[in-house]
Design brief:
It holds the Pfam family Cu-oxidase_3. Keywords: Copper, Metal-binding, Oxidoreductase, Signal. It comes from Thermoactinomyces mirandus. By secondary structure, this protein is mostly beta strands. It has four helices and 34 strands. The protein has a domain of 178 residues: Cupredoxins -  blue copper proteins (Immunoglobulin-like, Sandwich).
């Protein structure tokens, strides 16, 4: 995950934050499933298809990491880091059972990698420099090669200095279609959420985003970390665009539509499909069986999370964000139903409840029990040498205690947020079940790989240790990971073909 860095001086950081806050301003105020996922820009990767010696379908992709100019909104352009020149990169869509080969060619001036966020790849393909591979140096390439064993909505992003590289655009959707679909749909859209900074004359591309991570405990500023981040990241985007550049989603009356929401940013967002009956049919790529229909409830999506939402198109409407920020007002996604009157494009100011996922599923399948290994992780923050760090059990990476597990055993982890910030905790290589929230059992079966733990909350999660390796477990508010909130889960007797050096691991 992360290379251990010397933390910057707090006073200098606060001066920089003050300058940014002053400079920043908002930009312009059927039964047949879909053939392909669309990103409203039709940015779909085109593979070369062949058969391997075992008769398996092989899909070969090539992506080029490079610096590119990118327009986010009228009059707002940035120096982006991209896969293939776009933000997000091309949607990589395959079918369960395919063999995936992705060649990453680095044309940037700095190293890069690809991590398959949420996907249970073999450990050697996880894309974490210092843990599973060396970062891909400028002018070099690396080929990721694995089987698509499970379906769902995932994404890929750099795991080298990711607080900076992902922030500047190195991410894209990774969609694995199932062999047999449970929820039938006619149209399929991918919507990747992110944030950016419009800072006047300050160049977004020249800001070191990895250091914007500190709460202030000493200076007399009435601003905590979450408030600071919302003030700095004052432009919200959908598929790399904001305001009038957000493209409408076009559907036909009566079509069943699947929306795949992916949060590639730092902030949690609250999605609202205005006046629309919907089902939340998947969380982090994992199907929610017998999903109830809801209306005018917000779907909270934290950094690194994914939610699939299903609805039947009847009348045109808009998708907006209820985040309580001025930036959210510039995210309005038109859903245009052919032959229907166009909806008024304006944010919905109504106070709406947020869906409680722990009480949503009606699946009666029994949760895991009888665990062989249990761990408790206390999430917090502290000041070290005048700078903010984020801790697990009072320690920062690379001094955090690893979680030792054995293949095949059932593992339970208790997550206790004792701090003042949200912590979207992401486990590599595994899917876990939500067991309890604040001591109360979760109803139904909810499986995830990223879980937002809010201040004062306690969750218990469980999973089977079925994917041997050395796996990172970290906060996906990547500024928190950069300053310490990471650990690893290490399988007993695992022999890596790579010479792991956790002290040099990258977030």
């Amino acid at each position: 995950m992360m290379k251990r860095r010397r933390l910057g001086n707090l006073i200098g950081l606060l001066v920089m934050v003050a300058l940014i806050a002053t400079a920043c301003s908002n930009p312009e105020t059927g039964n047949q499933k879909a053939d392909k996922a669309e990103t409203a820009g039709e940015n779909l990767g085109q593979p070369q298809i062949s058969k391997d010696s075992q008769g398996r379908t092989v899909k070969d992709f090539t992506v080029v990491a490079k610096e590119s100019k990118w327009q986010i909104a009228p009059g707002f352009n940035v120096d982006a880091l991209t896969y293939d020149g776009t933000v997000p990169g091309k949607t990589i869509q395959i079918t369960q059972g395919d063999r995936v080969r992705m060649k990453l060619l680095n044309q940037m001036k700095e190293p890069v990698s690809i991590h398959w966020h949420g996907y249970p790849v073999p450990n050697s393909m996880d894309g974490v420099p210092g843990v599973t591979q060396d970062a891909v140096a400028p002018g070099k390439s690396f080929t990721y090669d694995f089987m698509a064993t499970v379906p769902g909505t995932y994404f890929y992003h750099s795991h080298h200095n990711s607080a900076d590289q992902v922030d500047r655009g190195l991410y894209g959707a990774f969609i694995v279609l199932p062999k047999q679909e449970s929820y039938q749909y006619d149209r399929d859209y991918v919507l990747m959420l992110d944030e950016s900074m419009n800072c006047g004359n300050m160049d977004h591309g020249n800001i070191n985003h990895s250091n914007m991570n500190h709460e202030n405990h000493h200076a007399n500023l009435n601003m905590d970390h979450d408030t600071m981040m919302k003030n700095m990241y004052n432009v919200y985007t959908v598929n790399g665009k904001s305001g009038s550049l957000i493209k409408p989603l076009k559907v036909k009356k009566g079509e069943r539509v699947r929306l795949r929401f992916i949060n590639a940013g730092y902030l949690s967002h609250h999605i609202h499909l205005q006046n629309q009956e919907v089902q939340v049919i998947a969380s982090d790529g994992n199907e929610i069986k017998n999903a109830p229909t809801i209306k005018d409830q917000l779907n909270a999506i934290g950094p690194g999370e994914r939610y699939d939402i299903h609805f039947v198109a009847e009348e045109s409407f808009a998708i907006d964000l209820h985040d309580g920020t001025s930036a959210a007002k510039n995210v309005l996604v038109p859903v245009q139903v052919e032959g229907s009157k166009e909806s008024a494009l304006k944010p919905d100011q109504a106070q709406l409840p947020t869906l409680d996922l722990t009480n949503y599923s009606k699946d009666s399948e029994k949760n895991l029990d009888h665990f062989q290994s249990t761990f408790t992780l206390h999430l917090n923050s502290s000041i070290v040498n005048g700078s903010q760090v984020y801790t697990i059990n009072g320690k920062t990476w690379s001094n955090t205690d690893p979680l030792p597990v054995k293949k095949g055993e059932k593992v339970k982890i208790k997550l206790v947020n004792e701090g003042k910030s949200d912590h979207p905790m992401h486990l590599h290589g595994h899917t876990f079940q939500l067991l309890t929230k604040n001591g109360k059992p979760v109803s139904g079966m909810i499986n995830k790989d990223t879980l937002v733990v809010k201040p004062g909350e306690t969750y218990e999660i469980g999973f089977v240790a079925d994917n041997p390796g050395i796996w990172m477990y970290h906060c996906h508010e990547l500024h928190h990971a950069t300053t310490g909130m990471m650990t690893s889960m290490n399988y007993e007797n695992y022999k890596s073909t790579y010479q792991t050096n956790l002290n040099n691991a990258h977030e």
